[in-house]
Amino acid sequence: MALAPGTVLLGTVALEPNRWRTVDPSGSPVTRLSSWLDQVAAAGFDGLELWERHATTDPTEATAIGAGPLPVAIWNTYAGFDHEDPSERDRAAAWAGRFASAGVKFNVGADPGRLDRYAERLARWVSELPAGCVALCECHAGTAAADEPAWTAELLDAAGPPERVQAIVHTHESSEHLAARFDAYGERITHVHVNHLDPSTGGAPPLADVADRLGATATHLRSLGFRGSWTIEFVHGTLTERDEPAWLVDQAGRDLAVLREVLVEAFP
After folding, report:
1. What is the pLDDT of residue 140?
2. Which of 64, 76, 8 is nearest to 33 (CA)?
3. What is the pLDDT of residue 91?
4. Residue 142 C-alpha from the chain's centroid
5. Which residues of the chain have pLDDT under 70?
6. 21-60 per-residue burial string, b: 16 or more CB within 10 A, e: under 16
7. Rounded to whole angstroms, how far apart are CA atoms 227 and 238?
8. Which helix (H) or strand (E) holds 119?
9. % helix, strand, coil for the chain, step of 5
10. 130: burial class by Cβ within 10 Å (0-12, 13-18, 19+)?
11. How far apart (Å, rounded) are the C-alpha atoms in residues 160 and 151?
12. Are 68 and 39 contacting, i.e. CB atoms less than 8 angstroms apart?
């Protein structure tokens, strides 16, 4: 099932300084997420898009997150589709079931020559997701589902019906690219990642600084037929001296206020 239109989640990857192994090469989180969830809830978020390592690294942390004030609406997995072995994908499905998540964010691999294999593996995985839990293709740059919307449409069509296999777009995408995605598989696009990372630095501006651009994107999405949900994926402070939870949580709350105002204007 899709989340209610206008739902806004916090991507917990935004609160993790070690999101890209820049602190510890093991990739283990350095943020104890459960310690910050009351503050995230108080800011007004509707739920979490949970970076999987925040739960899978420490069993006690997984329990604390599950008992926390916000639902894990989307499970953010990095389980791969390049290998036949389904164990990583099966674990992701099990975790989504544990948290009763409405969706699981995923990405296929980078080889366009393997699209048929990706589709077969994705279809099997979708069939094993919990009832009511949809597969959400991020269609991220660097994957075979990124640059050619027609390829993505074929992949998703082969993997399952729209009520089971859906897609995510990003606010940093051009209006032309967004339009091409909606032309190819618009009925599947149910979620947006609010992401304005600068590729040259990895940093992100406060949403207040790009509110006009964000508003124009939201209005464009509405014109394309979008009526879905949102995740604030990264916030100002990423990869700077302020890349620590206290600052990031505070900035996430400020960004949420801006996004709520934008959505009121764009989706009256």
Report:
1. 86
2. 64
3. 98
4. 16
5. 1
6. eeeeeeeebebebbebbeebbebebbbbbbbbbbbbebee
7. 29
8. helix 115-128
9. 45, 15, 40
10. middle
11. 15
12. no
Chain centre distance of CA 211: 20
Rounded (5°) CA angle 136-140-144: 95
What the block records as the tokens of 54 is 């925040």
pLDDT of residue 62: 98
Q: Are 121 and 82 in contact (CB under 8 A)?
A: no
Sign of the four-CA dihedral 90, 91, 96, 98 = positive
The H or E element spanning position 106 is: strand 103-106
Residue among 113, 103, 214 at smallest CA distance from 166 = 103
Q: For position 1, what pLDDT does the model report?
A: 57
Digit-coded pLDDT (tens) for 159-203:
999 999 999 999 999 999 999 999 999 999 999 999 999 877 778
CA 213 to chain centre: 20
Tokens of 22: 């820049």
Phi-psi domain of 214 (left: phi exceeds 0; alpha: psi -120 through 50; beta: other): alpha
Burial class of residue 241 in the structure, from the number of CB atoms within 10 Å of its CB (0-12 exposed, 13-18 middle, 19+ buried): exposed
For 105, phi then psi, to 5°, come to -80, 135
Tens of pLDDT, residues 63-76: 999 999 999 999 99
Number of residues in the chain? 268
Cα–Cα separations (whole angstroms), residue 111 to 88, 145, 155, 167? 19, 9, 13, 19
In angstroms, rounded to a whole number, what is the distance separating the alpha carbons of residues 3 and 227?
Answer: 10
Residue listed under structure tokens 């593996």: 121
